[in-house]
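Appendix B, Record 12. Input sequence as logged:
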Amino acid sequence: MNENRGPSVRKDPITVVNKTDIGLDSGTLARCEIDLGEHPPAALLHCIVTIRNVGDRMLRFSRVESGCACLSVAPAKGEISSGESLTFRVQIEAVQRPTRVVQTATFTCHDDAIPSMSVKLRYGLTGVVGYFAIGRASYKPDAPRRRSNSATRRLLHGDASGLEVSLSDHL
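Logged structural output:
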């Protein structure tokens, strides 16, 4: 069990369909980033991602490496000719107890040992308010007040006066 995921919570899968282009960059590794929208924590996302090769070279892969245990990808091998498309079936188990509102999961396709294509999947979590926790060792109610954590002490003691929160700075 992953500490951020908690016990497995199975809900009805959410299907996400998205299309994108890859191969516009001139580097050896074709990259793309796909926004999957916003979903609740612990959601099971079934994604159908169609990737079109707009570059001038064929993209081949003999294996797919996922960046985390929350991600599974099919097909595990294939090729995308210039101007053609390939549809991937991706399953993501969204984080149950997130530490941030925007999550990413990346998979990389390799042609033998050389990476040929990298796909970053980004999704937001709905119904989540940013937070942070203070461990017992760092919070001492009888310690002299320092300016850097006085707002945290007031919040912990139920006094939110004078606190200003801006989510746009953290997204």
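The first strand starts at residue 14 and ends at 22.
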